[in-house]
Amino acid sequence: MSISKEMRSDIEERYKRNLERPRIVVGLGTCGIAAGGNKVMDAIKAEVAKKGLDVDVDFTSCIGMCFAEPVVEMALPGRASVVYGGVGPENVVQLIESHMVQKTPVAEQAQIQILGGAEAYEGIPAMEKSEYYEQQVRSVTWRLGRTNPERIEDYIATGGYEGIQKALTMDRIAIIDEIKKSGLRGRGGGGFPTGTKWQFVHDAVGDKKYIVCNADEGDPGAFMDRSVLEGDPHAVLEGMMIAAYAIGADEGVIYCRAEYPLAIRRLNMAIKVAEEMGIMGENIMGSGFNFKVRIKAGAGAFVCGEETALLNSIEGQRGMPRVRPPFPAHKGLWQKPTCLNNVETFANVPNIIRKGGDWFSSMGTEKSKGSKVFCITGKINHTGLCEVPMGMTLRDLVYNIAGGIKDGKKFKAVQSGGPSGGCLPTEKLDLSIDYESLGQAGAIMGSGGLVFMDEDSCMLDIAKYFLNFTQMESCGKCTPCREGTKRMLETLERICEGNGVPEDIDNLERLAKVIKTSALCALGQTAPNPVLTTLKYFRDEYEAHINEKRCPAGVCPELLNYTILADKCIGCGVCIKACPTGAISGEKKAVHVIDPTKCVKCGACVPKCKFDAIAKA
Amino acid sequence: MTNSFADYLNTDLFFVIGSNPTEAHPMAGAKIMSSLMNGTKLIVADPRRIELADKADIFLQLRPGTDIPLLNGLMHIIIKENLHDQKFIEERTEGIEDLKAAVEKFTPARVSEMTGVPENLLYDAARLYATTSKAMLCYTLGITEHICGVDNVMSVANLAMLTGHLGREGTGVNPQRGQNNVQGACDMGALPGDYPGYQKVVNPEVQAKFEKAWGVKLSNQPGLTIPDMMDAAVEGKLKAMYILGEDPVLTDPDANHIKKALQSMDFVVVQELFMSETAKFADVILPGASFTEKDGTFTSSERRVQRVRKAIEPIGDTRPDWWIVCEVAKRMGYPMAYAHPEEIFNELASLTPSYGGITYDRIEHCGLQWPCPTVDHPGTPILHTKAFARGKGLFKAIDHTPPAEMPDEEYPYLLSTGRILYHYNVTTRYSSALDAHRPEEAAMIHPADAVMLGVGTGDTVQVTSRRGSVKTKVAVTDKVQSGMIWMSFHYRETPTNELTVNAFDPISKTGEYKVAAVRIEKTSPM
Amino acid sequence: MPNVTLTVDGTQVTVPKGTTVVEAAWKAGAFVPTLCHDPELSKPGACRICVVEVKGARNLVASCVTEAVEGMEVQTSTPAVIEARKTILELMLDNHPEDCLTCHQAGDCKLQDYAYFYNVKPGAFGGESHQYELEDDNLFIVRNMNKCILCGKCLRACEEKQGRAVIDFAYRGFKTKVTTALDQPLADSVCVSCGSCVAVCPTGALTEKAMLGKARKWEIEKIRTTCPFCGVGCNLDLNVKGGKILGATSNPASPTNGRDLCVKGRFGIDYVHSPKRLTKPLIKKNGAFVESSWDEALDLVATKLGEIKNKFGSDAIAALSSARCTNEDNYVMQKFVRAGIGTNNVDHCART
User: Fold this and answer.
1) Which of C45, C62, C92 sits opposite A483 (nearest CB)?
2) B415 pLDDT exceeds 90?
3) Does B235 touch chain C (CB under 8 A)?
4) FRET label pair with A284: which of A272, A333, B26, C341, CA 20 to 30 Å apart?
5) Cβ contact (<8 Å) for C335 and B336?
6) In the predicted model, is pLDDT for residue B426 greater than 90?
């Protein structure tokens, strides 16, 4: 069957009617649930029942304001809907009473209001004027936090499956051309032009072709794909279907890490209902095009995000990268031509087909078109999911969307692109966010994880963290990555422990060079990036650690010394009680002393001292 | 073998029947196993769920001794479904009508009842084998060691001819030979009716040729086969025996009959490496040199003649077997003097047409596959590419012959025998690592039978047939069918062949090692 | 097959299309080391020791997995290449015991050879090295995983040549190790002890247990022969030192089996040195065997057989020849029976 005009307008009609009813919607993405969203939901249902209110209680996915979870939206007919943040079960009674019964929003707990043509409230920022959203675009993430991801009707009512319907009337090459025209590039990190990749797979000879969706998001601090899968699973499926039709595949696999149970559950529901409605399966919408898709849950190895390791894993082999060439476009899954894109890439596709490649390419820079979803985490005020047009500066991202650095501290660096990326310093804040600029600066766009650091972050510690991650997650296949990252990590550890020697920097650079030039896969080749960029931008910190045995940020415990400043200490004895190892001694009213042989550098004494008499250096 | 081991990598389907290559012919098994990883298909027919059965696309777990019904049943389906190779049959064979008539009554329903194989599997196997262009049949002693062994072999050949799976790459009928040089020993005329190269002793021209070559009058009367020899010895007609490198007491069926035969003779010479069970009956034991202590050649299953090279001097006061035999001949007035095995080889090659083109020089590196009639002939990896030895391949109409002895009330279990991976006949018992790894018999019995008998793995049972009784430890496993016990013949401590039946194929004189009736009782540890 | 022409270190070389760069380089006479590469196994491109420079390539190129193409310009020993190879060797040596003096594999070890050639010393970066227990749990193979460089040839041989895949990589990162399923001892695994893994191991990580400590590699004389344990006809090399067979190893030139053997062929040949071998002719006197000279024994056999032939005729004598002896032995036996004794009563266990 197909989605007829009548059916679509019928679904749209019902969807609109529902929006006009009194509603309470809870954000139940993984972040919302983790923050207690389910308990909030239970409390809301109980309260609505208790009060006998004629209110629809529904849920949606993460709207992106992870910093404000749990998030609850309340709407009354004819009025803007208000999104409340930090809602706990204890607030529910008061919020419902005030907003839904008294029809008076609780302005102090409101984050934003969504107008949608309705009458606005006073004193609550409209979404598009809010600090967090003003500079964002929502082209991939527009349904997140706005629709119920478990209802296909919500998807269809908001233009869903229009893309595949349109595509099925198009020539396959015309679809690929449209994608090429859009300038869409792989959102998984590599940035390979999507249309070109599709063309390769289209042109490859094979009795069977596959579509594979890479949903093995593994970078620390990255959750773009999870948010999209949880919030808009049908968009990913539709993108895969369009790709499958264009390249001539009839089977798809979504490789999703098992740590994303909610994403897998919602995907499974979406697949099931789409099949039941005849949107997927045999003879889709009467076109003769067949497509089925299954989910392969990955066991969580970081390396399985590498496309060839991912294919091995689907085949039941150990997740280890294959040598390329042959590229998956020619010999991929089961040695058949395979089109492999990540979640965000596929999620972009339906819009491009619906709205045209020109619409997409109107956003962004010359070579990086469209928007990009980022997960912003670290020492910033607004951690969450955001989508920005390519070409925005890092500065705008940090100081506007992210709300600046926490506690008024100074920005120090941002790690872009996860373990494969690099650390960019203050001087690079005006860098445009696009594939080329980030690459030239020694980082990468990556899949969209941005970790912000403030003045209290030690750059060696950061490099050590990422190197430890790559070393633990190295598949072990090639020598440079397996053994080389281990030795780099050990060198960094030595330096941070105060045992560094000047030659260590040479060794790090030599190892980094060899790993970059000779490792087998992209993960290995990029593994030294965190070290290389920190060496490039923060070499003085390395030298301080090695030559002065000093950690300028005061992070590396072995290099820290706590001393009591004689001119400030009044001998109150509070620090003596706070010290867990009995390292501090001193008579009442006399200056206290720290015994460095007993001090474990935990820092517990520092906040206890009311006179700022304990110095850390 | 009609084809070669290298050809195992070219086939699209193995049909392995009565053969356990991963244990008895491990490198052949390895080739099959690795082919499967590349998508080659596999049909296994065996009473035991052997290792390959678990890897098979279709596993036909037939009752022991029902190979002919199974094969006829498959041919029945192939003919009924018109899957046979009409062109091959017309051009290369004769007798198809006889075959059709013979297999007519082997309907799937009847065959299923006789063999215990479900009907749907018969259809699946018949269709897969018939419709796979490159399909290879592999068998070994599970086919031949029956009183109907020759008929079994003929049935296998019928199936291959019916479907045209012969004379081409990746096809063929491929019996892997049990022993390292059984092919060569046959080629060399160590058979009562054949001179080297299967030239018949009854053929006067052949007789004349060898009389001329060897300079003596020769008998045109075919000699005795081993079973006939043993019978003749017991009857007092055979007075002396010279046994070279064989241990019939351990390896031939009905060991007690063999022992009696050896005891009956006036004079027994055994030429051996070790004090074998047979050697104990000898009047004189001549210590031979092992294969590492002499030069020579072996001929493998794929008819490849390959060098055996002397690596060390003969141990102790041992001598190469050929030297010892020549010495005896010389002392009996028939001088046979060779300075080196190469001289022997050159003589035998000159008298054996299929070996005529083979020399030590030519086989220095990788051997040659006979027929190799001339020095410029490249050898023959695949037989019957254009015609069969007799011209047209002859279909034989074959009916079922049940085993000589089947379980009954008194002897309710069916005994079948074979080899295990870690042992080869007898010599491996003297290998320290192999013997330490598998030091004793572990007779396989089914869990249901184990419960009935009140035994578990590692317990000891007494296994008794009409001919003898042995003690063995058991291993409980569902790899054997219920009602069946499977034992190897490697252990002098558990001489399995005291149990096997003294019944032979009438033509080949091969013993029925694969079926005997026994009873089993729990007993005290060995 | 079409050819392609490329230059290796300035030398033009023409190879069939599909040839790898390393093979082309070897053909051109260049020295390119390899560790994980094996012409008979699939190509993982894992160890990276074979990297070369290819004009136009972004990175160094693993020559064992890169196809030679027309006009390619390859440099096999530029400073970048040498630096990478030396670094890779340093990385391997840093995680490898420094016991070449007593290592069984010394003299036949690629790691040792390359370290020597590139003058690489252990301890370049220092740090942790593996301290695995020696795996000596079975009768056939000793595994010293501290010497493993994770080239993966063992597990590829196991899967691709023996069709078994008993071993594979386990764990990640520096802890990566070749193990059986669940890292169980080999003895408790489904391993059939064929030793194909041992045959392909480029270091001393996998060794034949029976040969350990018996001979330095250069003392061993290898004599190729045909296996005596079944009808497949595998070839193997008898390893000989001082008139004694220490064991068997496989020979890649073997026509049917290449470097693969089964447990019997590789580990069972020691029976020839069994103390239970018969070493003297024996004559039964009064029911007991008594050692004799060859002359006495041979004369007795000839006399007795002669007497029986004279008394009962040639057909009262029979002989069993042997499916385990050579063709030459069998030929001589049947000739003796037919021509010397005068009967066709010769047979052998042709049916087992």
Assistant:
1) C92
2) yes
3) no
4) A333
5) yes
6) no
**Å between B428 CA and nearest CA of chain C:** 6
Chain C partners of B365 at a C-beta cutoff of 8 Å? 253
Q: CATH number, domain at C64?
A: 3.10.20.740
Q: Kindly indicate the confidence band of residue A126, based on its pLDDT and cuts at 50, 70 and 90.
A: very high
Residues B212 and B95 in one domain: no
Structure tokens at B399: 């009916």
Q: How close does chain A come to C171, measured CA to CA in Å? A: 8
Contact A590, A536 (CB under 8 A): no
Chain C (264-283) residues lying within 8 Å, Cβ to Cβ, of chain B: 264, 267-274, 276-283
Any CB–CB contact under 8 A between C181 and chain A?
no
Question: Are chains C and B touching, using the cut-off of 8 Å on CB pairs and a minimum of 3 such pairs?
Answer: yes
Residue B90 in contact with partner chain C when CB distance is under 8 A:
no
Q: Is B185 close to C322, i.e. CB distance below 8 A?
A: yes
Residue B253 confidence (pLDDT) = 85
Query: What fold characterizes domain A460-547?
Result: de novo design (two linked rop proteins) (1.20.1440)
The DSSP code sequence of A118-156 is: SBPPTTS-BGGGSTTTTT---SSSTTTTTS-TT-HHHHH
Q: How confident is the model at residue B62 (pLDDT cuts 50, 70, 90)?
A: very high
Report domain A561-616's class: alpha beta
Average pLDDT, chain A: 94
Chain C residues inside the 8 Å CB shell of A485: 173
* Interchain CB distance below 8 Å, B241 and C261: no
Domain A371-457 has CATH 3.10.20.600: yes
Shortest alpha-carbon distance between residue A235 and chain C (Å): 34
Taking CA atoms, C129 is separated from A387, C145, C174, in Å, by 45, 11, 9
Is C159 in the A-facing interface, judged by CB distances under 8 Å? no
> Which positions ≥6 away from A344 have C-beta within 8 Å?
A140, A187, A188, A224, A225, A228, A372, A373, A447, A448
Contact A77, A116 (CB under 8 A): no
Q: What are phi and psi of A230, to 5 degrees?
A: -75, -30
Residues above pLDDT 90, as percent of chain B: 83
Identify whether B396 is part of a domain.
Answer: no
Which residues of chain B make contact with C138, given a CB cutoff of 8 A? 437
pLDDT (average), residues A438-450 = 89
Q: Which residue range(s) make up the domain with B443? A: 413-523
Sheet holding B58-60, edge to edge: B58-60, B41-45, B13-17, B135-139, B173-175
Closest CA to B428 of B332, B316, B304, B290: B290
Q: What is the pLDDT of residues C147-180, one digit of tens each?
A: 999 999 999 999 999 999 999 999 999 999 999 9
pLDDT confidence tier of residue A1, bands split at 50, 70 and 90: low
Q: Provide the sign of the torsion angle of the four alpha carbons A152, A153, A154, A158, taken in this order.
A: positive
Please state the rounded mean pLDDT for residues A186-212. 94
Residue B315 covered by a domain: yes
Which residue of C lies nearest to A517 if distances are taken between CA atoms? C59
Whether C146 and chain A come into contact, CB under 8 Å, resolves to: no
Chain C residue whose CA is closest to B185: C323
Query: Do residue C127 and residue C269 come from a single domain?
Result: yes
Contacts C45 to A, Cβ<8 Å: 323, 478, 520
How far from the centroid of its chain's Cα atoms is residue B435's Cα?
23
Token duo for residue B13: 């389907």
The predicted-structure confidence for A348-392, as pLDDT tens digits, reads as follows 999 999 999 999 999 999 999 999 999 999 999 999 999 999 999
Residues of B in contact with C323 (CB under 8 A): 178-182, 184-185, 246
Q: Are residues C52 and C132 in the same domain?
A: no
What is the SS3 assignment for A22-40? Answer: CEEEEECCHHHHHCCHHHH
Q: C69 with C79: CB under 8 angstroms? A: no
Domain span at residue C16? 3-77
- Say if residue C351's pLDDT is above 80: no
